[in-house]
Amino acid sequence: MQHFKLCSLLAAALLMAPLSGADSAELVKTRLAQNLSPISALPIVAKAQGLFEKEGLDVTVSNFTSGKQALDTVIGGGADIATTAEAPVTAAAMAGQPIAFVAGMEYSDVKTLTAKKAAIRTIADLKGKKIAYTAGTGSEVYTTELLKKAGLTAKDVTLVNLKPQEMLPALAAGSIDAFDTWEPHIANGKKALGDEVVLLDTKGVYSETFNIVVMQDYLKANPQIVTKFLAALIAAEAWVKAHPEEAMEIVSKAVGMKAEELKPIWNDYVYKVGIGPKQIDALKAHAQWRLDTKNHPPGVTAVPDFAVVLFPEPLRALDAARVNYKLN
To answer: 173, 189, 245, 328 — which has fewest CB within 10 A?
Structure first.
């Protein structure tokens, strides 16, 4: 009932006010906690191209190395808007955090980079190896799915919990045999270690989504800020598609990559502002994984009702066609 009332209030607020376009009034401030990576290309481009300002927003950006850190910052009150994957969203939903998932903005495959000397040529060869992953993220779910596909369990390997930026040094030092993570850490590893590493063929095992999440209280108090933020991302999406070379330059500079290094993996990222089957499937898959592995808060016995944390009203007010999902 509480969620229904909030949705109704949001719909009314969005109908009563203009949805985009800055006027002569002072820009409205909001704080973005962002995973600084190509997966955040849309907000990176929106900031660089002044698209937030065109919507009347002054967006202060704090950068993090994972979406979990970004969402934790928002939950803790250190920022207003987070870019984050489905893993932290599901964890927060299962913990009863009053978050509001307002849009997806990107999805891409998680990958595995291995040390050549470890002689890992197929996923079955992972048996007995030391594999790094990042706990609480899509990397962990991907690792579980990857082992399952290989007919292995966590008991058949040694799992090492590392931050993405810690994985390459560990692989170079020989303390792990492989690592499971997202780009650009895979590309960085290939560049740094060259012939000493091998990219395992795991395409299609697990796609991580990247999304926009706020707290429900913030959305209730600031529906227009959220709507304008999403409008800027939609404008960035169009700009990125129309100017891919320039977009790569902007993103590579922002994340500390060379454009020629980003170009080979650019098409790995699918940039689309929306809420659809891709986002819902990822949320449900991650929730089921938490149940299967007992990696969930005490008392949780089922996949959460994601209708409680999904708030499509701001995006629907901008473009109803971008909201296309069923929960059952």
So the answer is: 328
Q: What do you get for the CA distance between the two ends of the chain, in Å?
A: 19
Is 274 within a domain? yes
pTM of the model: 0.81
Return d(Cα 236, Cα 246) in angstroms, integer: 12
Domain with 170, as residue range(s), is: 111-200
Beta bridge partners of 5: none
Nearest residue to 113 via CA among 141, 142, 136:
142
pLDDT tens by residue, 292-327: 888 788 888 888 889 999 999 999 999 999 999 988
Task: Let me know whether 83 and 119 are in one domain.
Answer: no
Pair (239, 300) in one structural domain? yes
Answer with the one of 200, 225, 260 that is the final residue of a domain: 200
Residue 11 inside a domain? The answer is no
Rounded to whole angstroms, how far apart are CA atoms 38 and 269? 8
Q: Which residues contact 259 (CB under 8 A, 6 or more apart)?
A: 248, 249, 252, 253
Residue 261: both structure tokens together: 């290094």
pLDDT digits (tens, 9 = 90+) for 84-101: 999 899 999 999 999 999
Q: What is the CATH number of the domain that holds 83?
A: 3.40.190.10
Task: Answer yes or no: do 102 and 212 share one domain.
Answer: yes
Q: What is the mean pLDDT of residues 165-186?
A: 95
Residue 251 lies in a domain: yes
| Shared domain check, 117 and 98 | no
The answer to whether position 187 is within a domain reads yes
